[in-house]
Amino acid sequence: MQERGKKTPYIIGLTGGIGSGKSTISSMFEELGAEIVDADKISHSIVRKNTPLHKEIVKHFGPDILDEKEELNRPLLRNIIFNDSKEKAWLEALMHPAIKNTISGIIKESQNPYIILSVPLLLESENYDFVDRVLVIDVPESLQLERIGKRDNISTELAQSIIKSQMNRSERNKRADDIIVNDAPIEEIRELVKQLHVKYQQAT
Ligand code: ADP
Questions:
Q1: Distance between alpha carbon 98 and the CA centroid of its chain, in Å?
Q2: Which of 64, 112, 134, 197 is 20 to 30 Å from 81 by CA-CA measure?
Q3: Residue 149 C-alpha to ligand 1 middle, in angstroms?
Q4: pLDDT, mean over the chain
């Protein structure tokens, strides 16, 4: 049961392709005082050393899945599940309920009128049907490649293959309630974020 007088925050699902500007734009919302929930950060924190999920994963894949600090070797794990759909399904079945529980807990505790829930694969996943509104960060692919190249120091081929594995731009944009086209200077984008912040504060 809800506490008297406490309203559930409005949930804005923020998504976009790799390098579209999700982190940059989430930080802009945060600077304005919005509450940010980052699904990627949650998925990392629930499998840290000494957590129950960390133990489950080591039991399943064996100790070779650990790095020298006994944390999960993420690139190795990513590689395994990229090449084995059964292992991918196993890991997702383990992780998703825990991610969802953590997010639900944060939403329940929140005193804010709205929450920005940042999820890279929001529209690809079936786990986020509780989102009230979808904000897509959109960029032309050429700019996306340029920014990923600068940020991650990976080859154009790898960046292109990651982009290909994600939902395509027009499909993603079709499912958006709001779109920020992040091809303008940072200060212009900040203005758009301010306008959305005002709108989201009034959302019910
Ligand atoms: P994502 O979180 O979606 O992967 P980031 O927010 O990390 O993307 O942005 C990718 C890169 O592009 C970062 O290096 C960021 O500083 C840069 N960037 C984002 N938005 C802009 C912008 N409007 N102008 C210039 N650089 C930008």
A1: 15
A2: 134
A3: 11
A4: 94
